[in-house]
Structures
1.
Amino acid sequence: MASGEKVDYVFKVVLIGDSAVGKSQILARFARNEFSLDSKATIGVEFQTRTLVIDHKSVKAQIWDTAGQERAVTSAYYRGALGALLVYDITKRQSFDHIPRWLEELRGHADKNIVIMLVGNKSDLEDERAVSTEDAKEFAEKENLFFLETSALQATNVESAFQTVLSEIFKIHSKKNI
Ligand code: GDP
Ligand code: MG
């Protein structure tokens, strides 16, 4: 990216959810179009960026990962976040059962207008599915969240998940400027 890059907006989006649900691989897929099956727990990396064009404006998405500290995500992590991907693993029931707690924490810390997408990752592992699409959809509707199932491995819906959240943030943000 050229150093003289002109950016119209910078939107901070956070990734949250249990350890090993695939947050870091979702981010690697979105930011660098990469995937690794033997990814080590995220250490040190705070965020990655990717600049996209939405409605003729240049939008820099700044995506924060938990750096492997899922149990100790702090208020600094949520500060200024305009969007969130709330991730569970469709093959791990427990990671879905923990979603209400993550949502509560998120709503306790973040801006009240935050755009939230519930993400059921690892949709490529259909044979090991432990959370039905219907259950997740019902929860998302009840809580007013967007919802998609993704596969970071197969690059399914990762782009859509971020695009939806960023476009929605853009809508809210540009309304403020009318
Ligand atoms: P995090 O702890 O939430 O950041 O999870 P990681 O991104 O480190 O992923 C945990 C493990 O799940 C790694 O072995 C990944 O390769 C694997 N993984 C992540 N996404 C997918 C996916 O979409 N499909 C499959 N089959 N495995 C995945
Ligand atoms: Mg990670």
2.
Amino acid sequence: MDSKIKILSDKIAKAHLGGGTERIDKQHNKKKLTARERVNYLLDESSFEEIGILVTHRTTDFNMDKELYYGDGVITGYGTIHNRLVYIFAQDFTVFGGSLSETHAEKICKIMDLALKMGAPLIGLNDSGGARIQEGVRSLGGYAEIFHRNVKASGIIPQISAIMGPCAGGAVYSPAITDFTMMVEHSSYMFVTGPNVVKTVTNEEVTSEALGGAHTHATKSGVAHTTSSNDVECLEAIKALLAYLPQNNTKTTAKIPTELNDEIRTQLTEIIPSNANKPYDMHFVINGIIDNDSFFEIHKDYAQNIIVGFARLGGRSIGIIANQPLHLAGVLDVNSSKKAARFTRFCDSFNIPLLVLVDVPGFLPGTDQEWNGIISNGAKLLFALSEATVPRVTVITRKAYGGAYDVMNSKHIGADINFAWPNAEIAVMGAKGASEIIFKREINDAEDPISKLAEKETEYAKTFANPYRAAERGFIDEVILPQDTRRKLLKAFSMLEDKKVDLPKRKHGNIPL
Ligand code: HXC
């Protein structure tokens, strides 16, 4: 028995060395943790159970049978984070650059299948040179097996991808399908074709970092939902995010008590500037409503005219969508509509109630917006919110103009409770634009058109720049004081806790993608 145990322990020791100490040192020199270090850091102490530690690849081409590494470039298994079961794979860059072979893919698929069967989140730590070049189509097939499983698991279990090294070519499509892509600054990049191909095809000179680094995807493409300055921060961000998510689509998140900060709440009355054209930071409103320091922002640096993220209200996880007057006056445009629509669909899939804070002057005008499809992209948000069956509550903090009033979780598209602050302005358009159209003749015929316009603007604003027309119709359920907002929301969401909506059977709707 002793000799047999020795064989086993030698094999395990070898597997733990991955591609060997030299390559591990290289990984550390790049300020990256190894795959095993990442897994151990992320999961609760001693909770990791590895599956397939002794798997090796089956390729014989190019003398590959002489180069066998246990694990074949990916560590897979299960464990817990804050005592909750999760399934995990971590690509090991020290073994063939973490490249994906047929067996490497099989290992990932095995734990994906388990995650789906057991209804627990799947976390993928990506650090890979892409398809195992020596394996050709077997590797491509392996990727497709993973993509297919990502799609089948979508909306059933939360799927989180961390990009902690290269992720190129078709490999990018697995993270893209998962719910969240979290990138590490300066050590990760994602692109379909790298700088060399870009140069050959378009003659553009671009670095990997500029083409597909964390900053690029966090600000320009929106592919990255969060960025972190190093591996440890990224792993901490995964843990933090997971705390807002349920295990699967049949569960709700656990209630976590948090402290309250009443000081901020009392200042809510002063946050809105008396001049309706002056911006303010909607984060202040968010922080004045939610449980202390509980906001986890998603897509913080992308389409900043809308804010989306998770928070706790009375200890329960909620999703927040809020116009941000500080950026582009909080207008809805192509990117902000897509950002909010995707977030809405995530929350709706996973039973996370939605709070929508509205201060929106309308949709952004212009050829750029029209040619880039503000019609179909704006429709995504309208569609996503309309079909969401989770508890949905709206607070209009200032403007709710035009089509954007409808889109931003209005009563008409199924919101459960709609509040407005006393300073809210709910109308087809702002007073100036409206007066120029409906009083055009009167203004042109006036001796002093400028003062006539001002007079008409005042008249229009007095009639419509308030929440009362909407409240009289019941489109607003209650006009509330800013300082009462938290209390009102706690009650509304508590009242809606057991909301149930039975929809007629259909395969799926046809959201304008
Ligand atoms: C096999 C690979 C590999 C790959 C890297 N390695 N990529 N082995 N298949 N795809 C190996 C290297 O031979 C090397 O082995 C080790 O991993 C580390 O690679 P280095 O080049 O030394 O590291 P570095 O300088 O950091 O560069 C990393 C890299 C580069 C930028 C990722 O390795 C690279 O460009 N690799 C090829 C990327 C690529 O073109 N992949 C295919 C993309 S297409 P040793 O033994 O020296 O340690 C694709 C299609 C997917 O993925 C389609 C899905 C539908």
